[in-house]
Amino acid sequence: MKINDFGVLYIVATPIGNLQDMTFRAVEILQSVDVIAAEDTRHSMPLLQHYAIKTPVISLHEHNERERAAQMLERLTKGESIALISDAGTPLISDPGYFFVREARNKGIHVVPIPGSCAAIAALSAAGLPTDKFIFEGFLSSKSKQRKDSLKALLNESRTMIFYESPHRILDLLHDMQDVLGGERILVIARELTKKFETIREGTTHELIEWVKSDENQQRGEIVVLLQGLKQAAAPEEGLEEVKKILPILLESLPLKQAVDITTKITGYRKNEVYELALKLKHD
Ligand code: SAM
Fold first, then answer.
1. pLDDT digits (tens, 9 = 90+) for 24-76
2. 113, 178, 198, 260: most buried, per Cβ within 10 A?
3. Are residues 217 and 241 in the same domain?
4. Local structure of 80: helix, strand or coil
5. Which atom of ligand 1 is nearest to the CA of 93?
């Protein structure tokens, strides 16, 4: 429904690899708007050609967003309709467009989402980790120090955490996770979703480092990393009280790893959970 004489700004999700994941509505909107603002016009060409979309396309990327947004806003206020797309998935999700959408809404322009693929949500839906509460961290810094600082801030996070990472930094991220969170945290790596070599693998940080190292293909393509939240691991009550009594005492005089090993042996409690508790005790 139109709320004024302005045109409508559509935020259109496109596939994250499989062209079939385009929605009918997305095709119709892209065919009918006056102009498509695309993150990379050349990148979007195969998709637009595949769906016989002949609408004029202009670029709107992180380096020209402010200038382009001003031009686009003028066209919108004159009544033209515009669709924003990114290279893949949902625009604005680790993609350009935030400034444009903010300005459009400030001007009273009707902004309409056309939902579809999003790598984070696709990964979460199939990872087998709790989905009732989750947080999206996007890309952490490419610098190890900043990356580790971000991970330290997530040490006690109880919600499932979702990260994007480039394939050539996946091992660095996993190593930093191991250093900061320990080797026993449960992770899921979701790679090449919707594509030929789609792989979804769960394991401890330590196990996944070994797996990625042993198979170079795991350092290729597009990757989402999901980290299980701290308190979400199902904790059988039996033995927990004992762990809580023994562990703090051992931690006073022994290195963390040894305290965890001994506590696990005495109580029979799950090692990764004892480890997480030990980290938490140290941190607190
Ligand atoms: N806007 C996109 C979305 O809705 O997911 C994300 C764009 S962001 C620049 C690109 C990152 O998303 C990749 O580095 C990767 O972490 C993730 N990604 C995109 N496509 C993916 C796929 N097919 N499989 C796994 N991860 C993917």
1. 999 999 999 999 999 999 999 999 999 999 999 999 999 999 999 999 999 99
2. 260
3. no
4. coil
5. 1
